[in-house]
Amino acid sequence: MDRDEQYIKLAIDMAKTTVGQTSPNPSVGAVVVKDNEVVGLGVHVKAGEAHAEINALKMAGDKAKNATIYVTLEPCSHYGKTPPCAQAIIDAGMKRVVIASDDPNPKVAGRGIKMLENAGIEVATGVLREQADSLNANFFHFIETGEPYVYLKTAMTLDGKIATSSGESQWITGENARNDGHQYRRRCDAILVGVQTVINDDPKLTTRMEGNGKNPVRIILDNHLRTPLSSQLIQNDEAPTWIITSSRVSPHQLKAYRSKDHVEVISLKSPAIKIPEVLRYLGEKNITSLLVEGGGTIADAFVRAGKVSELVAYIAPKLLGGKDALTPVEGKGFEQLKQALHLRIHSTEMVGEDIKVTAIPKGR
Ligand SMILES: Nc1c(/N=C/[C@H](O)[C@H](O)[C@H](O)COP(=O)(O)O)[nH]c(=O)[nH]c1=O
User: Fold this and answer.
1) Reduced to 3 states, what is the DSSP secondary structure of residue 49?
2) How many helices (H) and strands (E) does the chain have?
């Protein structure tokens, strides 16, 4: 690993610590180096606050002059909530800029680099690009599609069951795997379940394990508004609860949920909920990442709609059997093998006694 890669790696590792808290902005890290000495470090901590480059330049002060800045994403060139970073780098009299990811926004991609080169600053790009790009896969997907990046998460036994035939499901996987699953709740802007999971499991869907963290918005897909008023998602107000229902529900039914400030019922215009419509709506609400926790009917709807960005499967070394035991993907399914959703295995690792597999649909 050469010097440029070393400093970009440091910037990426810093950016990793802010994943989930900068939404709808990307997670970015920056390192300022003068004569092989680190003189400034910075991350973007929250949307609307200073960008990583600005924080690193602030720490570097006068030492930024004729120094090099290593940044995980192309410096912005436009006035957003804060002035453009490319201009701040020019004003600081820097000599060189090393970048990992290009800006995915076609409207501004390359403009920051152009500004820097026109000011006589040397620019190197694409250093550890893949690592930096995967850090912001959610953000890049959101910018390119206007829809949230969708993690489909499931927890099953080795024989593919998510619950016993009598419906018992807690717990299939161990503490470590469930803890790992909560990191996705911290990272995602929203978590989504179907009403059957609410009825069966009465989940809280908050980020509770390993030091807590930001709670995602909790979303229930509920065509006929069957969410029990007594359920934790209605009674517990630690996070917003959005119930997405169809246009067929009556004003009387809607009224029942109005008493809870943290609950919002959204009836989409169609008589039956369609996944693409849900994702367009969530994108408009700046939900950039969505954790779909099931159950099987919901998973099937997302799979058949071709709207899964990444599968996260936890597999417990257990056998449950039972022809009526629930499986991760239920619903209508595909009738022919050639229709199957093909994925590329992205990672496999042990998490406690369980196996964790992540996989990306082919062609993404
Ligand atoms: N049943 C299992 C899971 N089950 C996940 C279901 O969504 C379940 O209803 C919620 O996890 C419950 O939410 P909360 O914990 O109350 O916030 N997920 C897992 O990772 N392992 C399992 O064994």
Assistant:
1) coil
2) 12, 14
Closest ligand 1 atom to 163 CA: 1
d(CA 223, CA 249): 8
Look at residues 73, 20, 67 and name the one whose alpha carbon lies nearest to residue 51: 73
Residue nearest to atom 11 of ligand 1 (CA): 203
Per-residue confidence (pLDDT) for residue 211, from 0 to 100 = 65
CA distance 149 to 164: 30
Interface pTM, i.e. ipTM: 0.90
The closest of 71, 83, 75, 57 to 15, measured between CA atoms, is 71
pLDDT at 213: 73
The closest residue, in CA terms, to atom 6 on ligand 1 is 293
Determine the length of the chain: 364
Structure tokens at 286: 């700046």
Return the residue whose CA atom lies nearest to atom 3 of ligand 1. 155
d(C-alpha 220, C-alpha 242), whole Å:
6
Tokens of 135: 């850090």
Query: Sign of the CA dihedral 184, 189, 193, 197?
Result: positive
Strand pairing class (96-101; 122-124): parallel
Residue 161 alpha carbon to ligand 1 centre in Å: 13
Ligand 1 centre and the CA of 285: distance in Å? Answer: 26
**DSSP string of 284-303?**
HTT--EEEE---HHHHHHHH
Name the token pair of 315.
């597999």
Ordered mean pLDDT values, 10 residues apiece, the chain (364 residues): 95 94 94 97 95 98 98 91 89 98 88 96 97 93 96 98 93 95 93 95 87 86 94 96 89 86 91 94 96 94 97 98 96 96 97 98 84
SS3 120: coil
